Amino acid sequence: NQTIVFEKDIITYQIKVVNRGEADAIAIRIHDRVPEGTILVDGSIDNDGTISDDGEITWKMDIKVEEEKIN
Predict the structure, then answer these.
(1) Nearest CA to 63 among 28, 39, 22?
(2) Helix H or strand E segment including 27
(3) Residue 28 forms beta bridges with which residues?
(4) Do 55 and 9 contact (CB within 8 A), yes or no?
(5) For the segment 7-47, what is each residue's pLDDT rounded down to a tens digit?
(6) What's the rounded Cα separation, in Å, for the pair 34 and 51?
């Protein structure tokens, strides 16, 4: 909860996804990138996310109606 980040600080990111539709979302993909100027800590991607050589993180999942997932 700090607003200033110093070199070697560890930053935690979360992505919140909610299915507000009328049907389950099956086999969706969520994509995000490692922010420029940061380094990904090995083993820190959860919920079976994968990272590509160019720094894109991808999660594949099903989300039921009104279900919330945090990655």
Answers:
(1) 28
(2) strand 25-33
(3) 61
(4) no
(5) 889 988 888 999 999 999 999 999 999 888 888 999 999 88
(6) 9
Task: Look up the pTM and report it.
Answer: 0.77
Q: How confident is the model at residue 68 (pLDDT cuts 50, 70, 90)?
A: confident
What residues form DSSP beta bridges with 57?
32, 51
Q: How much is the average pLDDT of 46-67?
A: 92
* Rounded alpha-carbon distances, angstroms, from residue 48 to 2, 7, 24: 28, 28, 20
Helix, strand, or coil (residue 64): coil
Q: Where would I find the beta strands (DSSP E) of the chain?
A: 16-18, 25-33, 50-51, 56-63, 68-70
CA–CA distance, 1 with 4 (Å, rounded to integer): 9
